[in-house]
Design brief:
There is one protein chain. By secondary structure, the chain is mainly α. The protein has one domain. It has a two-stranded antiparallel sheet.
C-alpha cells in the first residue's frame, strides 16, 4: 500500500508544526551530508578491496647504543639486577 497525497501533506504539516520552518532545512542538510559521507566511504572501501594487499614484515628492534664518557660506543643490553653483597665486619 503506497501513501496517498493527503497522507504526505499531513506528514509535512506535522513536521512544520513540530520542528518549525527554521529547523527543517538544517535537518535536510545534515541528512544529505550523511548520505554523501556514506557513499564516499563505500567507494573508498571498494578501492581498498581492488588494490593488492601488501604484506607487512615485522622488523626486529635494533640494539640500543649508548655513548661512554670517552666517546666510545658501547651496546646496552638488558641485564639482570645483581644481588646486593653484604659484608660482615
Amino acid at each position: 500500500m503506497r501513501p496517498g497525497i493527503w497522507q504526505i501533506v499531513l506528514v509535512i504539516v506535522l513536521l512544520f508544526i513540530l520542528f518549525g520552518s527554521n529547523k527543517i532545512p538544517d535537518m535536510m542538510k545534515n541528512l544529505a551530508g550523511g548520505i554523501n559521507v556514506f557513499k564516499k566511504e563505500l567507494k573508498d572501501d571498494k578501492k581498498q578491496e581492488a588494490a593488492p594487499q601488501k604484506k607487512v614484515v615485522a622488523k626486529k628492534p635494533a640494539a640500543k647504543k649508548a655513548v661512554a664518557k670517552k666517546g666510545t660506543v658501547k651496546k646496552v643490553t638488558a641485564k639482570k639486577p645483581m644481588a646486593k653483597k653484604t659484608s660482615k665486619k
